[in-house]
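Quick one, T. Sequence first:
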Amino acid sequence: MGRMEGKVALVTGGAMGMGKAHSRLLAQEGAKVVVTDLAEKEGRAVVEGIKQAGGEAIFLPHDVANEGAWKAVVDKAIGEYGKVDALVNNAGILTYKPIQDTSVEEFDRVLAINLRGVFLGCKHILPAMKKAGGGSIVNISSIYGLVGAPNAAAYQASKGGVRLITKSVAVEYASHRIRANSVHPGLIETPMTAGINDDPDLKKQVLGPTILGRAGEPEEVANAVLFLASDESSYVNGAEIVVDGGYTAM
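Structure tokens:
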């Protein structure tokens, strides 16, 4: 306990799935958590749960693809808590279809949320972290940001971009004691992947060579996020932490 004591963490897409798990664990470990999402009802429920467990958190509605929304969220987070020590760029969507069946609008929407959202988050949190003397940025990518797979071109383009923008931030801002690392989950049991997890044949296909033979739980990814957000990872920068049950080991 107390691995994030005295720190402030901002988690996008924090209302459900992995974001909910990240928010709860960071709060459990002592962080003041700013939970952001477009799903206001679910996001406020996450904050209420954190408070009932003795933690501290606030909820802010947030469209991560909108630059003005990012400016407002960062200003409100700093206004409430004075700083942001850790940013978890978790918000994302999945379009699972062949490339020839993916419309330009679908492609653009996936990149706007999954990649532009990460870019904007880094852009607007970096000045605050520089002023505070350092911080940790944790960007949620995917195994599909590392390897190819069928029916996921838009998603893979976005998650591959997340992987490399993370390294760019790590290289550019290390002198300011700001670290940036990416997390690459495999198939995780979340509302976003329900369409996959609820279809036995599709689930088997997506799990593919996963050595552990099962989908992961959001809390298993949150443990990696906690490590990267905390000072325990003080010598980890520009790295890729894979949480995939061994999918990419084969």
